[in-house]
Design goal:
With about 230 residues, the chain is mainly β. The protein is about 10% helix and about 50% strand. The chain is globular, with a radius of gyration of 18 Å. The protein starts with a helix and ends with a strand.
């Protein structure tokens, strides 16, 4: 009996039921309380038959600041991406110029989907699908979002070009962190490039103090790219 009680106490809390009304509206209202976010994670990138592993840290400060850094097992920074002031800066020493993950790798989890991407702007609901509510966002709509109406959590989203899938994000293993349901498993698929990214979040920090110098662009000579967000 004691072991059963301890197991219940250690079990991660699941998202509570969604409030009545539109799931996307409920999702936006909940995430308005996210003033800052820090996440530490492990990532495995599959490029064809090749596999690359790294650890990473994501910093998010709405409405326009986000930074993600990936470090390889041997300790070298292999990706440092910053979005601030409407521009994206990327330093990726080991990536080729056409690496499909070099810019879009930044776009995962609540840092983008809820605060910078599909959670903002005009979206219209479509038909329910597989127990989720589908929304199309943009004009013309090029981005879709699937939200679980039972919990108002993001299940998946994607971008299309001329009706063909460009990238898809899938979110699972939601747990409550300081009252916020956040995904601990994220999968990103780039079907055109035969690339998949599997992310296992180790921990989140909700509303941690973040400094301005954590969002300063790198020196010009260190930048692999400096352009408007893709």
């Amino acid at each position: 009996m004691l072991l059963a009680l301890l197991a219940g106490c250690l079990r991660p809390a699941k998202p509570p039921p969604a409030p009545p009304g539109d799931p996307l509206t409920a999702l936006r209202q909940r995430t308005a309380a996210l003033r800052t976010l820090r996440a530490a994670f492990d990532v495995v990138v599959h490029v064809g038959a090749d596999e690359r592993r790294a650890t990473g840290v994501l910093l998010v400060r709405p409405p326009d600041d986000a930074r993600m850094r990936l470090v390889a097992p041997f300790g070298m920074t292999v990706f440092d991406g910053l979005r601030t002031g409407g521009r994206t800066y990327v330093t990726a020493p080991l990536a080729s110029g056409d690496d499909p993950t070099s810019l879009r790798a930044m776009r995962f989890g609540p840092g983008d989907s809820v605060l910078f991407g599909a959670g903002a702007g005009a979206c219209r609901a479509a038909e329910p699908r597989d127990g989720q509510t589908i929304y199309w966002c943009g004009a013309p709509p090029t981005r879709w979002v699937a939200i679980d109406p039972a919990t108002a959590t993001l299940g998946a989203e994607g971008e299309t070009v001329d009706g063909e899938p460009l990238v898809t994000w899938a979110y699972s293993d939601y747990r409550l962190v300081d009252g916020q349901p956040l995904p601990f498993r994220i999968r990103i698929d780039y079907p055109r490039a035969n690339v998949t990214v599997d992310i296992a979040v180790e921990r989140y920090e909700v509303n941690p103090p973040l400094r301005d110098d954590q969002f300063v662009p790198p020196p010009q000579e260190d930048r692999a790219a400096a352009r408007p967000p893709a």
